[in-house]
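hiii so my PI (J.) wants the whole complex modelled not just the main chain, which honestly fair. so below is everything: two entries, each one labled with what it is. i double checked the lines twice but i was tired so who knows lol
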Amino acid sequence: MSVRAGIVVTGTEVLNGRVSDRNGPWISERLAELGVEVSSILCVGDRRSDLEAALAFMRSQGMDLVVTSGGLGPTADDLTAEVVAGFAGLELELDEGMEQKIAAILRSFARRLRLDEEALRVANRKQAMVPAGATAIDPAGTAPGLVVPTDGLVVIVLPGPPRELRAMWEPAIATEPVRDLLARATPFLGFTLRMIGTPESEIAKSLREIEDETDLSALEVTTCLRRGEIEVDVRYRDGAEAAAEALREGLSRRQSRYLFSSDGETIDSIVARALRGRRLGLAESCTGGLLAARITDAPGASEYLAGSVVAYSNEAKSELLGVDPELIAAHGAVSPEVAAAMAAGALERFDADVAVSVTGIAGPEGGTEEKPVGYVCLCALTADGEELARDPVIPGGREDIRERSALVAMHMLRIVLGGGEPPL
Amino acid sequence: MSVRAGIVVTGTEVLNGRVSDRNGPWISERLAELGVEVSSILCVGDRRSDLEAALAFMRSQGMDLVVTSGGLGPTADDLTAEVVAGFAGLELELDEGMEQKIAAILRSFARRLRLDEEALRVANRKQAMVPAGATAIDPAGTAPGLVVPTDGLVVIVLPGPPRELRAMWEPAIATEPVRDLLARATPFLGFTLRMIGTPESEIAKSLREIEDETDLSALEVTTCLRRGEIEVDVRYRDGAEAAAEALREGLSRRQSRYLFSSDGETIDSIVARALRGRRLGLAESCTGGLLAARITDAPGASEYLAGSVVAYSNEAKSELLGVDPELIAAHGAVSPEVAAAMAAGALERFDADVAVSVTGIAGPEGGTEEKPVGYVCLCALTADGEELARDPVIPGGREDIRERSALVAMHMLRIVLGGGEPPL
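here's the output for the full assembly
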């Protein structure tokens, strides 16, 4: 039996594009893990009529579950609790226990920030109003959440700040009305294949060939280009294992040159794993720290990353990485020769086992006919003398070129660390 | 007269949270600039019924304009053109001119990637089908867009890849049906104030005080916390200038300690401007390159950024920044003393006019009672001997701590470069 859900995200700042919504995708991933099918994510402003229309739309679409985020603050334009109560035909009642909890939170908050306690408390009594028969969820910030059962549909009401929303997710789905609903959902099974260097149309062709031999209709297959890699996501329910395995095997075989992950592991995780017990040094020019930032995004990166020299100026390339100024003069700062010297410098200065360098023209200025914007030279070296060099011309704008350069560097690290050699 | 718009984003990968939607917010910002009021952004999957329901919802909400993104590819699950034609009650017709354009694009594409030309062409004839009476927009990739006038509502149909969508925006809004609609919209006026170090509730209090003296009802005021800063966005239409100025003046005066931008300029742009003609060196530990990546995000950063030493290991701090190992042993790598030595090292190694350093505990491991996760030491130095040091405990997870640390470093740069001294 399938459970259908919709997500309603409120907030003018999301609607007008100033802040990008992090809650919709997060909730959607959590629901998918629980086997719930998310059919729409609707962002609306803080107006009563828009919020009412959003809930009515979800009901008209036959949703079993609606999750809302935002609009639970203390000010008058925070309307979600009230509108959901109206939608469910329930009166709002003051939850005195909750009022005391919020008051206690606000007292410490007010003291720390030296605010007027009484003004805060009055403004926040509003947040302790709970629809009759609903379950209040303890706040992670100051706003409590709600689980409101209505006619044939359960509404989970959560606050907008992502940290608060995430902290309140588990308690919300543990409430009885949500538990009862989730008992009807069959969790999805699935896996993700990741490839680099093959166009989406080739994946589509492989999928058609596999489909000629095997019935794939029980699988939900999504192909998407994500940060320069191709991700093929396969989801299915109990009983479709054979078709799923046929697809995994068929696609892996046809795209073996390009496949680098068949169990969902990301390139970042693959590289982090390969670096265990080794020491990495980086030398960056056009990526300007992005590569180091990407690698240090992983907790525990200090175990293998010694550091990065972001050598943006030519002087820094010479002073901090020991690149011969004459080499730069002869070949230009963006050249395979300088990339190799930067990698050698990083290997030495960081006393590293492996190093990778990036120097390129991220634009928008600085391109020439011979070396256009997007021309990037990369070199990966190991202390054992392995070397891998690439100098692609990467399409797109400055941001694309910088991000893609860091990605290529990650894949070159994977390769010199022993993880196959697909084309880049 | 106001023009109301809705945005429909299609794509399973957006709906299931694997890819975050970049088109909805971008379209929303463009429409706002044109004076169009965006009331909802709806993400749905690639199913016919969901897409039909999305368009019906937009009509029920009285929208004058709907912009769709995605679902224009060559495969069978790309349904947008067909569903929009059905919604408008129009037949799809083959646009032969468009078919030739797409064929020409595909030929060069197929040659470059060595694909089967004929198979591609057949699959892509589908993309040349245009509803009768609609205007086709030339492709920026391979998929043409559409402008489809329907009963009282204009639908702009654009492809999903952000680069293509953005390139096709101007031609789409220049078509006659959209021009006619936009002629009825009054563009918004407005400004943005940016503050750091004051809680949202204090802004709300200032706004209430200003409202006691001036009628602000003609203004749309949005306060939001964005990447650690508070942004107050004020929008209004002709005639509300006096109220808008009263708000700008009143809020600037009340929050003068915290205000750093009253004309919408970002901290990145303020720092970039202040750095003109100077030379910056960075020394990063816990931010791991994020600060350098943020600064080099700006085109032209090579004019003032010499580089960054991302000294993740203690050896790198000593070897590349000249930090005395005994200083690290005595105070720990995360200490105001080491932060000061790192900044001094960056100043010297990069021969810089100004340097800033960051060393901290980003977690999740590595915290102690005395130096908890989130404890970050920063130091900004100028060659003239100005010094500014901070050592906040930053709340949140690893990502929050790293991002906020980079933000604090940006504001410290602003301050040592002469831009006031609000508390951080």
